[in-house]
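Notes from the 1:1 (GR / supervisor)

We went over the backlog. Supervisor wanted to see one worked example end to end before approving the batch request, so GR pasted a single chain during the call. The sequence is below; no edits were made to it. Supervisor asked that the structure be written out right there so they could see what the output format looks like.
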Amino acid sequence: MSACVPTRATDPNQTERTHPPHSPPPSGPRRFRIAGADVSASIAVFLIALPLSLGIALATGAPLQAGLVAAAVGGLVAGRLGGSPLQVSGPAAGLTVVTADLIQRYGWRTTCAITVFAGLAQLGLGCLRVARGALAVSPAIVHGMLAGIGVTIAVAQLHIVLGGTPQSSVPDNLRALPAQLADMRPASVSVSVLTLALLMLWPRLPGRAGHLLRKVPAALVAVAGATAAAALAGLRLPKVDLPSWSNHALAGLPEGPVLGLVAAVLTTTLVCSVQSLLGAVAVDKLVAARPGNLSARVGRSRLDRELLGQGAANIVSGSLGGLPIAGVAVRSSANVHAGAVSRNSTMLHGVLVVIAALLMVPILELIPLASLAALVMAVGIQMVSLNHIRTVTRHREVWVYAVTTLGVVSLGVLEGVALGIAMAVGVALHRLTRTRIRHEEKEGVHHVHVRGQLTFLAVPRLSRTLHLVPHGADTVVELDGSFMDHAAYETLQDWQKTHTAQGGSVEITGRHPGTRISEPQSGSDCRCRPWTPWRNHQCDGPQSTPPAEKNPDGSCRSEPDPTGPGSASGHELARGISAFQRNTAPLVRSELARLAREGQRPSQLFLTCADSRLVTSMITSSGPGDLFVVRNVGNLVPRPGEESGDDSVAAAIEYAVDVLRVRSITVCGHSGCGAMQALLDSEPGGARTPLKRWLRHGLPSLERMADASLPWDRLAGRSPEDAVEQLCLTNVVQQLEHLRAHDSVARALDEGALELHGMYFHVGEAEAYLLTETEAGGVFDRVRESDLTA
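Structure output shown during the call:
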């Protein structure tokens, strides 16, 4: 396999710099162009970002201009330098509580300095390439943090909605709420109610006219409608006040205790980074769900680069007196759904924010603060997602979610996240130590039942239970768990040796009683070579059968009694297992013991057909632990995001790339593939059997072969024998394309940590071919000894 030629993802933005011979060179550089889809998407994002940026600045207690600065910098700097082309960055609701607390403690200028230092920390983390480490945080902690921030925002903004002023913490706001309700201002409440009503009703407008009107963002309609209503009614309310840009406060030297400032920088860095990286992953999923012609034009997120872009944006935003910046889910999803195809939409939205901040100040100053407060309160409520609660409940992590949420609400973001992490560790330890061990006696036989993971923490209980068994008694130990560590293994083995030496018997079984964990006794004198059982020989006949004859290679051949217990109709599996235990197991036991201790560390994912003639270990000369093998009918890789897709293949790919860290993936087709023949013979309609439903994932290969504009994939030195072989070759190339569309594979390819290979095995010739992809189509070359030494 060392002669494989890796495939490389091509850069869609790379232009061809050569020109045909005897032709004049290009007349000049290409003109900068912005796709129409990016223009329309940028306008949609701008209309959402403008009111939200002002509202978030209001919620933090920062100058309202700081929200516009952060929105512009997020679009221009993070949009240009970040690794997620369609993620929109700016002032995020998830940072509201952190920023408000910093402003109250240290003042605005020091908060800007903290933002700068947080950006520098993000640059350092990006250079260290630890972006994926942030994704290791439990989703329950992240969702709990966002829910706690959402509750804090909603409770604080409720006071502004009622016409008052929020307090510094959620408990203080809750204690002051009765007095605020008694002294609420009808004008503020009416404007806020109108804003909330428009927010909820606008996306639900019925009919064709409603479909057209819903293209205008609900946030813009709500704020504009409330502003117009307040102006027409002549209500006197506090409104947006944007002082002259000449008086705008910039970052100053940080003032305060060093430890407090360091904690503030770490908190800001953590929240900004985690929210941005999780947002980038979510954007990739949204892009993958779009139609193929749109998703193919957008590259996958590069998380380390995204972290660098966010760090640069925070440095610029803090220096210019802007709020901290992170990826924003609402604006990013609007950008994707609006059809954006490049980072130009994000940058253009930043330009529009700059234009609005300079030219639309008189219009912005008409907006009532109560309307912005209602808008931000609605965003805070939406951060408490019922879908997230159902998800963490299903995964039995609701306590982690609840503790994180309550910690953020009561103590603060950093403290709440720390409590959530501690709770997550506690839950994991509880699951690890939740081992039930019981002893009972049935008909003179002592049974020891172990339920759960058997680790060193359960060794004292295991030892006490085992000593309840009398000396010399017959004992059955039933292990019902997926893990046993070395300490538990030693304890069990030592007791077994001692108990056996005292005249007792010990049988260790698996989950189902009667399934012995032991080596079967040899029941025949037939000795077959350990590595030849695939030759379909027949061994282990009963003692009454005639002596076994020898095959030319030394393997055995005997004809079992067709009426006896050793007949081929029911005992081939048992005979094969017995032969393995007797002949092969002694040769591989030490190697398998090492693999059992160290765990599996395969270097390759090998995805091939379920055809019984294709023996992966034989054609790749690999042994136990070398290959992570996935087999299915037709060696198909369903494209991600397809309705009713098969998650088993996608799960294996994700596990191999993200957990096992394989360095290469091989898609292997073979000659005479029944699945490809079935595709060629398939007709529209008919019964939708499970096989037909599965084979629909091979239809793109059939379409690729029928596409006259694409060159045919071929074998080196000869043409395909027939249409089936042609489809087998085309299918390998097509499944590699499907493979590149998976998130984990795309990320690993971008990082240079993974290679993709195509392979074709001709069963009749026992010949393997490796794929080399060229502009003229894929070519499958034989693997020769000279290739290995080249």
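Supervisor's comment: The mean pLDDT is 79.
Batch request approved.
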